[in-house]
Design a protein that fits this description.
alpha+beta, Ribosomal Protein L22, Chain A, 3-stranded antiparallel sheet, 3 helices, 5 strands, 35% helix
Length: 111
């Protein structure tokens, strides 16, 4: 049995989140939590909340043992991009893209 948790419209670019997700993929939840707490990346904080949510979903919805959980799947997809304009020299305007992300985390019980 697997439990999922979603984090939508996070104001961090998918590229930055993917770096942290690659570190924790396949690890058990206790190790992943320790890694996230000691990783100096901006994506770590929302991912800690997401991992806690996935653990809580597994325990509450499917009665899984939280000590036997591991991260079976985790991926990030691009969310809508906020487009802003920055004034430049000689009347030109450059576009600034403020990217956001949707993150999915799936935990399963070890057998």
């Amino acid at each position: 049995m697997e439990a999922k948790a979603y984090l939508k419209y996070v104001r961090i670019s998918p590229r930055k989140i993917k770096i942290v997700l690659d570190i924790i993929r396949g690890k058990d939840t206790k190790t992943a939590m320790a890694i996230l707490k000691n990783t100096p990346k901006s994506a770590s904080e929302p991912l800690i909340k997401l991992l806690k949510s996935a653990e809580a979903n597994a325990e509450h919805n499917f009665n899984l043992d939280t000590n036997k959980l591991y991260i079976s799947e985790c991926f990030v997809c691009p969310a809508p991009t906020l487009r802003r304009i920055r004034a430049r020299a000689q009347g030109r305007a450059f576009e600034i893209k403020k990217r956001s992300s949707h993150v999915t985390l799936v935990v399963k019980e070890m057998e």
